Amino acid sequence: MKNVGKSNNNNHNIGIMQRATLYLKRLKKKSFLLFFIMYLLMFLFLGGIAVNSGIQKNIEEIYKGMEGYFSVYSVDAAYRIDDNYIEQIMEDNNIIRFNAIIELYLSVPNTSLIPGRFSGTGNTEEYMSRFISNTQSKDYEDFQNKNRELIEGEHIKETDTMVALISDTLATLNNYTIGDTITANIVESRLSLFDSEAEGKTYTFTIKGIYKSNHKQEVKADTAECNIEDNYIFIDNNTGKEIASYLEGNKRNTYTGGVQFFLDSPQKVNQTIQKLSEEAAFENREVNTMNYRYEQSEEQLQSMARLIRIYLWILGLAGMLILFGVMQIHLRDRRSEIAIFMSLGVKKTHIILQHFIESLILYSLSWIAASISIIILCIVINIILPNIQFYLTPAGVWFSGAVGLFIILMAMLTSHICIVRFSPKQILSKDS
Length: 432
Fold this sequence. Notes:
This protein is of the alpha+beta class. It folds into 2 domains: 11-62 and 297-431, no CATH class; 68-264, no CATH class. The protein has helices at 2-26, 28-63, 83-89, 141-144, 168-174, 237-246, 269-278, 292-332, 335-343, 348-384, 394-415, 417-421, 424-431, and strands at 68-73, 95-107, 128-134, 148-153, 163-167, 181-185, 202-213, 233-236, 259-263, 286-289.
């Protein structure tokens, strides 16, 4: 008896599948219309996923091989930035290197500076230039953000001594080339205080590189020579620390220009700053993050990603409503058929299951067709526009399939409430 029951049950299940396939073949136009609506919705949904995947990939590319950094400054003599302080911060595992900066004012009597406020006065300030020493000049903020760009020679390295970078304007004004030398003196001036034995001390720097400024500084009549940016001279930190050691009150090698700390990714900057802040590492010191360029690039892409996610949510909800409406219309044309099946003793669950199988067949075909269409479209777009890379991952395809299946199921169940609630007579009366 058990085997007979099982056999009848299998035959009944086969009957449901046969009815579903026969219906799709018999009413090809209606089936194709439902297939096309499902295909269109899945095409738009998969397209959104492909665009979102491309945006996330572009965000990853922004940070790939890119470093982030933050700077620490101090104007409080009790909280100086010196070698001991740098060693303390460098203990953080996220920080990979630093660039310590000292700003000095030295006289360059044998070098013609771009004229400023003191030009022709004979004052000491007429020959004063701002010297900026760096651990590595390539890490200096202006070089990082491309406000300055090295056009000849090499950047200053940590191991260099007695070398300098000058602007192309200063090089042209003095006919300087790579390998030439610039002589600088410590002299008495309002711009620098120094120990008495340091006055007149001379330093000769070899020009290692020439840079150009990528922005135009407005030089006014009252702009001093040492504040004209093309007069700036970058030097190595080994020499800069020696010069600074002669300045009054700076025996501890204080880095007056602050220090930059570099991390292997801009994404780690904020969390590192927060961690160090909790450890009171920045007490009475000013911290500046330097991720503006990266954050602007990422923010634009993140804004697009947010719009795409909103688009996917709206499309999902709209798709459910559209399918609900289409299935309601579709179901209305089948009321007589449903009532007859119910009158013949076919269970409501079997009727709903048949309709679900019909929808599942159409949905599976539309999902596969839409996936193939989007993959081909992505390949074509990526060839035509190589700077834009859209793609579908297997996870994205399966995710779209699951979401689509959920939408189909919800739309079908909500549209079949009448079958669950009403009798065959009530369904036929509604039909009439």
